[in-house]
TrEMBL record:
Protein name per UniProt: Dipeptidase
A Pfam family the protein falls into: Peptidase_M19
InterPro entries: Metal_Hydrolase, Pept_M19
A single GO BP: proteolysis
Organism: Oceanobacillus indicireducens
Gene3D superfamilies recorded: Metal-dependent hydrolases
Alphabetized GO MF terms: metallodipeptidase activity
């Protein structure tokens, strides 16, 4: 069964090896086992479309963050698209339907707007490089909003609202994963295309990175969608271990809130340090699919895996 995965951090790993951080030898996107989302694993797992996030660690000095972002965007184009003919750059979600058998779509995204500072020209540059989804924060505060780990818990700034407005104008997804609760509600008020690229249900696992029930229902009501994340601490409270059944509890719960047609997957592979049992890299995706098929009709599982996102993406394109 084919999969759309809306979040991974392979670009950060590739950048680190280029800079010789934590690794003496550059990684090969096609085969390096250090990459949970290398191309061979994406193929084995049936991943049809993989989103690749530009993410800058918060300890990178402010005046260096834009350069780091450009490096990761360059690696997307050179190491993932340029060296692998099977990888096709998706610049519009309608292009996913044009993928040929054996091809994998690659979508560029931004996780945290720190790198643009207060400069919308930089955001427009990222759009031109192919970014189709923008997460305003990581876990802390920046000039757009507070993140889920910021004790203050404030919402969108005036500049953050400008970013959301520019996303709307360009039919770019505004990603609510990592936002503070107040920032989530502010985004929901202002964003035309909100979605959660990698978040779970807080009532199942009480973690600030997960969404409370009222937020999930409001996101669904706005026509947004939520892609579950495979990071064990977001699946089981205070745990570095989780089973596929633990993960499915989040799916069951979101479905009970009306989310059956709004669910998808956002693994966070290459950005997590512990893994769901039998789901430790993209090549094991079908283990999740097989378990879901024991509880849900095939049509519903195909929705989780691929069709739900495509149905919403087509509405975005039609809206423009």
């Amino acid at each position: 069964m084919k999969i759309i995965d809306t979040h991974c951090d392979a670009l950060l790993k590739l950048q680190h090896t280029k800079r010789r951080i934590d690794c003496d030898t550059p990684l090969n996107f096609r085969t390096s086992p250090e990459l949970e989302t290398n191309m061979l694993r994406l193929k084995k797992g049936g991943v049809r479309v993989q989103f690749f996030a530009i993410f800058i660690y918060p300890d990178i000095p402010t005046d260096e963050q834009w350069q780091h972002a450009l490096e990761q965007a360059d690696m997307f184009h050179s190491e993932i698209i340029g060296k692998n003919p099977e990888m096709k750059h998706i610049r519009s979600f309608t292009e996913i339907d044009n993928l040929k058998p054996g091809e994998i779509g690659a979508v560029l995204t931004l996780e945290g707007a720190e790198c643009i500072g207060n400069d919308l020209t930089k955001l427009r540059t990222l759009y031109r490089l192919g970014v189709l989804s923008v997460g305003l924060t990581w876990n802390y505060a920046n000039l757009c909003a507070d993140g889920a780990g910021e004790a203050r818990g404030a919402g969108l700034t005036a500049f953050g609202k400008e970013v959301v407005a520019l996303n709307n104008e360009n039919r770019i997804l505004t990603d609510v994963s990592h936002l503070s609760d107040q920032a989530f509600w502010d985004v929901l008020e202002h964003a035309d295309y909100p979605f959660a690229s990698h978040s779970n249900a807080r009532s199942i696992c009480n973690h600030p990175r997960n969404l409370p029930d009222e937020a999930i229902q409001a996101l669904i009501g706005k026509g947004g969608f939520i892609h579950i994340v495979f990071n064990p601490p977001f699946i089981r409270e205070n745990s570095e271990e989780a089973s596929i059944q633990d993960l499915i509890r989040h799916i069951d719960h979101i479905c009970s809130l009306g989310g059956e047609k709004y669910l998808g997957f956002g693994s966070d592979f290459d950005g997590i340090s512990s893994f769901v049992d039998r789901l430790s890299h993209a090549g094991e995706y079908q283990n999740l699919i097989n378990e879901l098929l024991k509880s849900y009709p095939e049509e519903i599982v195909r929705g989780f895996a691929y069709d739900n996102f495509m149905n919403h993406a087509k509405k975005i394109e039609a809206h423009g």
